[in-house]
């Protein structure tokens, strides 16, 4: 096996695919805690400062615990598969234990989930590292950009909405994925 150059060792998460990151994790070029930290740094830089994309209004407080658990599984040879350790996001309408589930609506801003939605449970079972909850219009009503967290902005052009009328519940998710905050979003 050839030795890696410095540039090969410093993995970029920008526009990386699930397979890119899964291979890097499997080959020991990075770990899940590092991927989570890089993702959160991008969120801090582009979502909270500079561009103010407003795609991820709620960060998962357990993100590093999930990432560390993934690294421990990998170290013991019990990886859960291709999603194990991969950073991702979920939209504000999916229930995740202990987190608010407002579905973008001011009426549900303080509603806390007491169970995981089926999809969230499956992502967790596969070892996916959920970074946070993505912004969405109230109750997934596309074109309504007055949700509890405001609207997500386009990472490509500040003059345009992410999708003016067809955005539905995924405008924050689309912004987050396009800005490489997480590899995929639900």
Helix fraction?
Answer: 25-40%
| Strands ordered across the widest β-sheet | 1-3-2-4
Order of helices and strands: HHHEHEHEHE
Q: How does the overall form come out from the CA principal axes?
A: globular
Radius of gyration: 17 Å
Second-tier CATH architecture: Alpha-Beta Complex
Annotation, overall tally of beta strands: 4
| Number of separate domains | 1
Domain Amidase: 52-185
Pfam families: Amidase
InterPro entries: Amidase_dom, AS_sf
Protein name: Amidase signature enzyme
List the helices and strands and how they pair.
Elements: H1 6-9, H2 18-26, H3 32-48, E1 58-59, H4 63-75, E2 87-91, H5 118-125, E3 129-134, H6 171-178, E4 184-185
Parallel strand pairs: 2-3, 2-4
Antiparallel strand pairs: 1-3
Helix pairs in contact: 3-4
Short structural summary:
This protein is of the alpha/beta class and about 190 residues long. It has helices spanning about 5-10, 20-25, 30-50, 65-75, 120-125, 170-180; strands at about 60, 85-90, 130-135, 185. The longest helix is centred in the first third of the chain and has 17 residues, at about 30-50.
């Amino acid at each position: 096996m050839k030795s890696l150059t410095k540039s090969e060792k410093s993995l970029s998460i920008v526009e990386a695919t699930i397979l890119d990151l899964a291979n890097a994790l499997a080959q020991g070029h990075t770990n899940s805690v590092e991927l989570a930290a890089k993702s959160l740094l991008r969120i801090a830089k582009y979502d909270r400062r500079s561009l103010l994309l407003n795609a991820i209004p709620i960060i998962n407080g357990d993100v590093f615990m999930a990432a560390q658990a993934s690294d421990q599984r990998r170290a013991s040879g019990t990886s859960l598969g291709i999603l194990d350790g991969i950073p991702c996001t979920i939209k504000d309408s999916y229930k995740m234990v202990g987190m608010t589930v407002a579905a973008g609506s001011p009426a549900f801003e303080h509603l806390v989930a007491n169970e995981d939605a089926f999809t969230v449970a499956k992502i967790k079972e596969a070892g996916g590292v959920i970074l946070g909850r993505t912004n969405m219009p109230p109750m997934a009503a596309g074109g309504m950009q007055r949700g509890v967290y405001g609207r997500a902005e386009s990472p490509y052009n500040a003059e345009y909405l992410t999708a003016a009328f067809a955005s539905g519940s995924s405008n924050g998710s689309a912004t987050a994925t396009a800005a490489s905050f997480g590899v995929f979003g639900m």
